[in-house]
């Protein structure tokens, strides 16, 4: 048996000098046949690949020959050339030959499932085909949802470019806190969450002629809920076309859900991808990534590299180490263009990943999961897959939510590998063992609806008048206890009455595209006369990238600057202080620079704040200010976040009040050293331990004031205080003093 095992492994070609890896023969049966199709196409593919390589060599030679200039095409202006190349690219996409058939199928059926490989042109082309076919006449729009903000923005930008229009005119996008559309917009990309909210103002989607639920295979919470909502709508809006588009795998399931809607398959074009596994598990996958990138760069033919990391921090670390090593190698290696991409990266930086790689250089893209299916970067030949992703997870027993790094599923691993075979034969380096792949990875990723807090979703559904959530038409229903917990939480927040119906407060909360706790905090600020302060805090908390700038070479300065902002009371008030000081500087860039604050994050906080102020006006809330009353500000925060309370226990650890979970104050918190007895936290992050991030000191009696139906006085008695007199009493008794 052991022998068979080893024979399955093919040693890597000596010439390639890749001692880290062993190659495993492609096991087609492990993959869904839909995911990786080559077979008959292989020869054709090889020829095409040879052609690409030949062209590349010729091109490079042309450039490097001294005195010989590359041939010029003087007849075409830059703009015309760009236009021509866009037209060519459009024609080369796998979806192009099916344009007419597809439009016909859409005319023939109200609901259509569209399945095609990532990169085949579904997201960018289908809305344009529909536009050309007249689906936007009669003042109706084509909508297309994306699970991710970055994807919605970058795809809209791309389509605007392809159609030679300015982004935000005919083609636009709408994401939470940012609407880049206008009266003229006919193709609108948006996040699934945004469409979910649009139902509140337009329950029949009357302004759309076609709705595309794109990247359906991602199965985000909002996409899953949209399935139920749109299924209902097509029943009474016979003129609305519904397209469910997905990369692979789930088409049959979607078809089943939508009353056996037909499936339109776009044949894939996929080149073979060789998979390599590490022989032993990697202790430090960031380091393993860096080593692998450099090995590929030094030993493999040109072609870009895509690396999958779990988040911004990891990407930045990897980028730093890599840049440092590249610098030290100097001219010994060819140019390596290092580009990060993650959700919070400013869009001009994101755009860079789509620029062509300079000749004789290699591009390496350090990406989050976003590059798995939502974004297609051309010319990727090598993929490095450490096998992890960041996932929202939720414990329905404790109600605790946290963002944790987890192993990916086999389906994800294969999707990632597939990214290497889009333009030519590729290679995928998995930083885990073949054994781990086979035995440790789950087959499929669990849909989000089954693993996250449903508070926000339930609130929106209730606001849509959907009262019976237990019988809502879910593709995969959430666990019963998660649903019940969400209902309980909304009840405790005062958003639902004891019949489970939306209260007046709940209706106002639903107006805000915020987590119910934050919405409650905002609304409670009215009572505590500090809405102006709370809305700034909400804006700051909603910026999910870093506020403080901490460059490696100026850590001490940066930390001193950060500490200068600390105010008594905790991190929420500190965030408010940062915002207020920035405002006092007239929102200056220079001020940010001098104080080690990220200007972009602040600008976003200000944008969000402004949006929220607009929404506050809509629910007739006044903007009142009381900056000296920090107790009231903290009480308003507590009114929203009374679920997130922990009390000091032994050894600087904290225990959450309701579930007695051990948590700690994050080292970046201004309360890290002072350890107050009672704290409120904004969120938990799990790294080495469960850390509370954005922590504020509170008094336990406030909990009885803001959530009397949730807390009993007994729970809030201070165990240390209680034990002390008893212990003293006892010792006194023992001493016979009574
Ligand atoms: O949706 P699907 O995965 O089927 O493909 P797509 O996103 O429509 O991508 C089609 C083509 O457009 C790919 O070759 C992408 O590289 C290209 N594209 C681009 O160049 N820039 C973007 N921002 C988005 C797509
Ligand atoms: Mg797509």
Explain this structure.
- Keywords: ATP-binding, Helicase, Hydrolase, mRNA processing, mRNA splicing, Nucleotide-binding.
- The structure is a single chain.
- The chain is α/β, with parallel strands linked by helices and about 750 residues long.
- About 40% of the residues lie in helices and about 15% in strands.
- It has 27 helices and 23 strands.
- The chain has an eight-stranded mixed beta sheet, sandwiched between helices. Strands 6-5-7-4-8-9-3-10 form an eight-stranded mixed beta sheet, with helices on both faces.
- Helix 8 links the parallel strand 8 (about 210-215) and strand 9.
- The longest helix has 24 residues, at about 40-65.
- It is globular and about 75 Å long.
- Cytidine-5'-diphosphate (CDP) binds next to helix 5 and helix 6.
- Cytidine-5'-diphosphate binds near residues 155 and 158.
